[in-house]
Amino acid sequence: MYEWNFAPVFAESGLLLAGFRNTLILTATALSGGLVVGLLLAFARLSHRRWLRLPADLVIEVFRTTPPLVQLFWFYFGLPIVLSVEMTPFMAAGLTFTIQSGAFFAEIFRAGIVSIEKGQWESAKAIGMGHNQLMRRIILPQAVKRMFPSMMERSIELMKTTTLVATVSYADLLFQANELAQKTFRPLEVYTVVALIYFVSISCVSFFAARLEKRFARTGEFSV
Amino acid sequence: MPDPILRLSGLAKSFDTNTVFEDVDLDVAPGDRIAILGASGSGKSTLLRCVNLLEIPDAGRIELNGDVVGNPEKSGRARYPERELRELRKRVGMVFQQFNLFPHMTVAGNVAEGLVTVLGQSSGPARERALAELDRVGLRDKADTYPSRLSGGQKQRVAIARALAMDPEIMLFDEPTSALDPALVGEVLGVIEQLANEGRTMLLVTHEIGFAYHVANRIAFIAEGGIYEIGTPDEVLKNPRREKTQKFLAEHRRFQF
Ligand SMILES: Nc1ncnc2c1ncn2[C@@H]1O[C@H](COP(=O)(O)OP(=O)(O)OP(=O)(O)O)[C@@H](O)[C@H]1O
Ligand SMILES: [Mg+2]
After folding, report:
1. Gap between the Cα atoms of A217 and A200, Å rounded
2. Averaged pLDDT in 10-residue chunks for chain B of 257 residues
3. Where would a tag sit more exposed on chain B, N or C end, judged by fewer CB atoms within 10 A?
4. Is the pLDDT of residue A159 over 50?
5. Which chain A residue lies closest to B89 (C-alpha atoms)?
6. From the CB of B4, is ligand 1 less than 6 Å away?
């Protein structure tokens, strides 16, 4: 029977905490960047102008159809050669996951925006709103509530996918766990703790997301 | 005759190969209440929507209180830059069949929205004004509820208040009671009647012929791609001169008692 011993792991818990912090920083960066990129891509896709629509389509397609690990390697090893720039692991990871989640968010934004009934657009125009006012005041506030569940799903997916960055030596939670496992010879305990950290933090996020969704429902606009 | 508030001349609109109307002329004087009648698909909504440019006419001219809207071109077609669309729509109120209230805003928020976002008023005065408009339609006590809690008749009255808050020079109603339970039609027609008595200028597309007879001062019957017959309610509804008008009215009377 295996004898569990967490003591060596907890003795070095600072290592895991630093990794967790980096995971959160990377996720937050990719998430906020991804939301901006996603909104821009969604507007480009919905535009009447072909020269805006086509490049957006291409970016979205490329990032949706290639494996995230390949994208990461391409940004980390490839981009420095093509553009002769310096790439830190954080920059490569941040770029990859910002654009990648942007591509997915774009689709969610687009679907949310077009799901708003024609009458809403028309009554906003009828009181004299311009396109930007109409988006900001009428369409997006309703669309965001409808998109929220798939946004959450995608964000959780993102947090888990960021574990790939361990492969380019970005010191995220998984990378630190690998180090710790080698150091302590206690891989089972280390990865159990790591799984637990992901489980608890993502469950917390889900819990608050569910509460937020309930609050959204208070205006009753979903039952109309 | 005073200068018209709205003058349509030579207005034309088609969808692909489907010509809805070809040459509509209409002068609307201050205080006019013009009811627009016609068979389903005859183009009543399209005509109304051309007035506030939710549909862009293919040709013709729109003048609002003497201001020509858009930039007429040699072809007869006018160009309507985004800024002109917004300017025109600020001055024209529209009420839709499906109410189209903003579900994420309270009732008062709906009415104040145009004042704040479009006219740039600060929220205090805008709310005051919204409450006053809600008072006019008898819904001041609903100011802080959400539209989903209202009946259809109440929703439509809020939609009317929302349009009125912008101080429109003319109001457009597109079948404002057609989506309502029969029991709720009266309260909405009551509000429209009150506006008519106050001397508001309005174009009203409706199937409520009795209401049109009592409230309108002119009736326009739409058929054959244009205004087919126009005149006072007595002329058009009591003694229609043209065949299609007669048929339409006979059809409508069939099930009356
Ligand atoms: N957006 C559109 N695209 C294509 N055709 C349209 C569009 N809107 C209206 N039409 C067509 O234009 C014609 C006039 O339609 P419109 O809605 O103005 O009629 P209406 O008189 O308001 O009818 P109803 O009494 O049913 O509301 C119809 O043949 C309709 O199919
Ligand atoms: Mg219609």
Report:
1. 26
2. 89 94 95 96 96 94 92 80 94 97 97 97 96 96 96 97 97 96 95 96 95 96 95 95 94 82
3. C
4. yes
5. A128
6. no
Tell me the DSSP string of B142-165: GTTS-GGGS-HHHHHHHHHHHHHT
List C-alpha distances in Å: B243 to A120, A193, B22, B221, B248: 39, 86, 20, 12, 9
Structure-block tokens of residue B176: 């404002």
CATH class label, A22-170: mainly alpha
Note the residue count of chain B.
257
A223 interface with B at CB cutoff 8 Å: yes
**Cβ of residue A142 closer than 8 Å to a chain B Cβ:** yes
Q: Which residues contact B70 (CB under 8 A, 6 or more apart)?
A: B62, B78, B79, B80, B81, B84
Chain B residues whose CB is inside 8 A of the A148 CB are none
Note whether A123 contacts B102, CB cutoff 8 Å: yes
The residue in chain B having the minimum alpha-carbon distance to the alpha carbon of residue A142 is: B104
Q: What is the ipTM of this complex?
A: 0.94
Spatial CA neighbour of B237 closest among B254, B221, B255: B221
* pLDDT tens-digit readout, A16-39: 999 999 999 999 999 999 999 999
- For chain A, the domains span 22-170
Among partner residues B93, B104, B118, which is closest to A129 by beta-carbon distance? B118
> Residue A132, Cα to own-chain centre: how many angstroms?
26
Instruction: Say if residues A136 and B104 touch (Cβ distance below 8 Å).
Output: no
